[in-house]
Design goal:
Distance between the termini: 60 Å
Radius of gyration: 23 Å
Strand content: 5-15%
Helix content: 40-55%
Shape: globular
Largest sheet: 7 strands, mixed
Length: about 450
C-alpha cells in the first residue's frame, strides 16, 4: 500500500503542476506515436508515463499520445523506416545518427530545437553527433560511461570485501583475472560475464583494447585507415583469450552471451562482474531480481597503457514524416519526463516522479552521466532525487569519481563503429572457442575486412 501511495502521489504532482507557460491548444487534432513507451512487462514505468500523458494533455488537448514501444536494432530499423512505420519519436545509439541522417530516416528539427534554445544547452560533442551540414536531427536522452558492475553478494561470499563491507574491486585488468579466479574457486560462479555473441562483444572489447594502447582507426591524408591488427590490439585479444583458457573464469559459453544475458548473469548470481554503465542499473535489479543493495558499479580496470571508460549514449530522433507540430509536442513530452535541459516545475516534478518510480521498482536511484551542459539542471536533479535515494552511494562513488571528476572518458570510434564491433566479435568468438586460435592471423583478416568497409563507407 505504501508503495502504491508513493507512486500515486508522485504522479499527481506531475499532473497538477503542468507547464509554467500554461495551456495552449493544438493547431489541429493529431497524434504522436511514442516509440519511447516502456515495454509491456514494466508496469511501473508504464504507470509513470500515464502520469506524463495526463500532464501532456493539459498542454496539447488536441493531440493523442499513442504508445508505440520500439527497441532500436540495426536489423529491424531499416525495414521499419523504409515502410514508413517509424514512431514519431524513437531512440537509437550515439553510433547511429550520421548513418540514419544520410539514409533520410530522421527529420530536421533545427527550427524546433532552436526555438527552445536547447541547441545552446546541449553538450557540444553531442550536438555534433546529432547534426549534419549545420542542421540538427536529434536531442540526447542520456549519456553513459562504461564501468564494472559487481554482484556484491558474490564478492562477500568470496571474502573480497573491506572492513566496511564494501567490495574490493579490481584496479587493473590483471587484477580482474585474478579476482575472477578467486570468485570462481570460492563460489562456483563465473568471475566475469564476457559478451561474444553480437556487436556488443566488439563494443566492450574496444574499451579493453584502448587500455592496452590500441587505436582502431586513424585519418591519414584525408583517408580513414584501419589499425585493427597492431601489437596493442593483439595484446588485448590475447588477454581475452587468456580469460578463457588460462584463467577459466568466464561463463560457460561467451558466444551465447549478449547485452541482456550479461545483466541476467549479474542479477541471478551466475557471474560476479560485467562491463556495463550507469544507465542500465535497472537491468540486473528490476528486470532480473537482484536486491538494490547487492549491486555496485566500479570504475573499469586500467591496462598497461592507461584507463578509459567508453562514453556513448542514447539520442531521441524523429520520423522524417513527422510534422513540426508533432516534433514540438514530442519535445514538450520530453520536458515533462525531465529528459530536457528545462528546469520548470513540470520538469522537476517529472524528475521526482521518475526517482520515486525507480525506488519503488527496486532500481538504484543514482544520477545519469550528463548529456546537457546545465549546472542548474544537475542541481535540480539532485534535489529531486535525494528523497528517494535507496543505495549506499559508496558502492558507486569511485565510478563517478573516475568518469566525472577524472574525466577518463573516450567516445566510440568515429567511423563505422558497428562494423568494427562486428569484425572484432568474430575474432573473439574464434579465440574463445579454439584454444589454438592464432590471434595475429585472425586480426590480420579483420584488418582487411574493416579496411574494405572504411574504403566503401567512410572515405
Amino acid at each position: 500500500m505504501k508503495k502504491l501511495v508513493t507512486v500515486l502521489c508522485a504522479l499527481l504532482c506531475v499532473c497538477a503542476l503542468g507547464f509554467a507557460g500554461g495551456k495552449k491548444d493544438a493547431a489541429k487534432d493529431s497524434s504522436i506515436k511514442l516509440g519511447i513507451w516502456p515495454e509491456d512487462t514494466l508496469t511501473g514505468d508504464i504507470a509513470l508515463h500515464e502520469g506524463y500523458v495526463k500532464t501532456f494533455n493539459e498542454v496539447y488537448p488536441g493531440i493523442t499520445v499513442v504508445p508505440a514501444y520500439y527497441k532500436y536494432a540495426t536489423d529491424t530499423f531499416v525495414p521499419l523506416a523504409q515502410s514508413g512505420q517509424l514512431p514519431t519519436i524513437y531512440d537509437t545509439w550515439f553510433t547511429e545518427p550520421q548513418k540514419i541522417i544520410s539514409q533520410g530516416f530522421a527529420k530536421d528539427i533545427t527550427k524546433e530545437v532552436k526555438a527552445l534554445g536547447w541547441d545552446e544547452k546541449m553538450n557540444p560533442g553531442v550536438l555534433e553527433l546529432l547534426s549534419k551540414d549545420g542542421k540538427i536531427y536529434g536531442v540526447p536522452r542520456d549519456a553513459y560511461a562504461l564501468g564494472l558492475m559487481l554482484n556484491v553478494e558474490l564478492f562477500e561470499e568470496a571474502g573480497l570485501v573491506d572492513a566496511e563491507g564494501l567490495p574490493v574491486y579490481p584496479k587493473t585488468w590483471t587484477e580482474l583475472a585474478e579476482t575472477a579466479k578467486i570468485i570462481k574457486d570460492k563460489t562456483g560462479s563465473a568471475g566475469l560475464c564476457l559478451l561474444a555473441k553480437d556487436n556488443a562483444g566488439g563494443w566492450h572489447f574496444t574499451n579493453i583494447a584502448w587500455d592496452f594502447g590500441a587505436v582502431f582507426e586513424v585519418q591519414k591524408n584525408g583517408k580513414w585507415v584501419a589499425q585493427v591488427n597492431t601489437p596493442e590490439v593483439v595484446a588485448a585479444m590475447q588477454y581475452v583469450k587468456d580469460l578463457k583458457w588460462k584463467y577459466d573464469v568466464l561463463t560457460a559459453d561467451p558466444t551465447n552471451e549478449d547485452w541482456g544475458t550479461g545483466f541476467r548473469a549479474i542479477g541471478t548470481g551466475t557471474a560476479a562482474m560485467y562491463i556495463a554503465a550507469q544507465d542500465a542499473v535497472n537491468q540486473p535489479t528490476q528486470v532480473n531480481g537482484l536486491p538494490v543493495t547487492s549491486l555496485s558499479l566500479a570504475p573499469l580496470p586500467a591496462g598497461p597503457k592507461g584507463q578509459y571508460s567508453l562514453m556513448g549514449g542514447t539520442p531521441y530522433m524523429f520520423s522524417p514524416d513527422a510534422t513540426s507540430e508533432q516534433v514540438a509536442a514530442c519535445l514538450k513530452y520530453l520536458e515533462i519526463m525531465g529528459k530536457s535541459p528545462e528546469v520548470t516545475d513540470a520538469a522537476i516534478a517529472g524528475l521526482a516522479a521518475d526517482a520515486a518510480n525507480r525506488m519503488n521498482e527496486g532500481i538504484p536511484v543514482i544520477s545519469p552521466f550528463p548529456a546537457w551542459s546545465s549546472e542548474e539542471l544537475e542541481v535540480a536533479r539532485k534535489k529531486a532525487e535525494d528523497p528517494y535515494r535507496n543505495v549506499d552511494m559508496r558502492l558507486y562513488q569511485a565510478y563517478y569519481d573516475q568518469v566525472l571528476v577524472a574525466g577518463n572518458v573516450k567516445p566510440e570510434e568515429p567511423m563505422c563503429a558497428q562494423d568494427l564491433y562486428a569484425e572484432l566479435t568474430k575474432v573473439m568468438q574464434a579465440v574463445l572457442t579454439d584454444k589454438n586460435a592464432d590471434v595475429q592471423a585472425l586480426l590480420d583478416q579483420a584488418q582487411v575486412n574493416f579496411q574494405r568497409i572504411l574504403d566503401r563507407d567512410a572515405n
